[in-house]
Amino acid sequence: MPADSHSSVLAGLERIVGSGHVITDADTRRGYEIDWTARFQGSTPAVVRPATVAEVAAIVELCRLERVAIVPQGGNTGLVGGGVPLAGEIVVSLGRMTAIDDVDVAARQLTVQAGATLAAVRAAATAAGLTYPVDLGARDTATIGGNIATNAGGINLIRHGGTREQVVGIEAVLGNGQIVRRMSGLVKDNTGYHLPSLLCGSEGTLAIVTAARLRLTTRYDHRVTALLAFATVEAAVAAVARLRTAIDTLEAAELVLDAGVRLVCAAFDRRPPFARPHPVYVLVEAADVTDPTAALSGAVAALDGVEDAAVADDESRRTQLWRYREEHTLAIGTLGQPHKLDVTIPQHQLAAFMRDIPTRVSRYAPDASTWLFGHVGDGNIHVNVTGVEPDDDGIDEVVLGHVAEIGGSISAEHGIGTAKKRWLHLNRSHAEIEAMRAIKRALDPDGILNPNVLLP
Question: The whole model's pTM is what?
Answer without folding.
Answer: 0.93
